Amino acid sequence: MSNPSPESASGHRVILWMVTGIILLNLFLAWKFGFTDKPTPTGSGTAPASHLGAVGGHGDTASTGSVASAHAPTAAATAPTAAQATATATPTTAAGTEKSGGTAVPGGNRVKGSVTLAGTPPAEKQITPITKDPNCGPLHSVPVMTRNYLIGSNNGLANVLVYVKSGLEGKTFPLPGTAAVIDQKGCLYEPYVSGVIAGQPVDIKNSDNFMHNVNFAASIAGNQTFNFAQGSAGLVNTKTFAKPEIFAKMQCNVHPWMFAFVGVIAHPFFAVTDKDGTFELPAGLPAGDYVLELVHLKAGKVQVPLKTSPEGGASLTGVLLAQ
Fold first, then answer.
1. Across all residues in the chain, what is the average pLDDT?
2. CATH topology assigned to domain 174-266
3. Where do the domains of the chain lie?
4. pLDDT band at residue 14, thresholds of 50, 70 and 90?
């Protein structure tokens, strides 16, 4: 076998240095500007009662078990501890604005409520690379900030996934007739946090007239890893997540600050809190005993017992601590 020519060896070295430079640049951006957007690891428990309302830490890494929940008190009941917080069944109507979530099914109850943040979260950071990018920068007239903690009125916390974690075992529900949509617009994923039903089609589209790629590395067996490019506006790729996964994370490697997080749920009874921290599960939850889980990328998660009856739905308030 003949040895490679000096010109070929030199070309290989140039390519190697280019790839190495791109990797080092992405690592520097993640370190410098905190754009890793990793969900904060948390335990499944709740904080001791003495921690309710405490101000959380300001680092990017949270300690486990530092979340708590509040409840709507019921008559003739003792005040529960943080680990025993409950949602009480009260008659509700179907009136009101439907929040981002699953698909309503006939009959059953409606569950709604709000999630608030206790404590002072770390300040959001400006995504400075977006302004320096020749394609992305001209699309924004004001600074673009990270979306770790979006706080609305009354300390309402946006982008909290609320879903029935247990109580629906053995029950099946039809998939919705429409696909969920995740867009790439202005060099950001929209929505940043969303929920879909396992097996539901998801249309991933590009509204920017330049290259993005969508990279998803599955962490649950049964979900298919994918990585594809979309070179111009109007392109749509349809994907599905076969198994529940919280959260499925997508990233654009061309623009390393771009992330989207998808809560993949086995049933339609989920919602994502709006800008003021309110949510409403789809109608049709059968009467019964359940456990709701409230999950936020940075503030952690908490589980709340829920009981519904044929006469009405339920109203609850959950509290997460700033990390």
1. 76
2. Immunoglobulin-like (2.60.40)
3. 1-33, 40-170+285-323, 174-266
4. very low
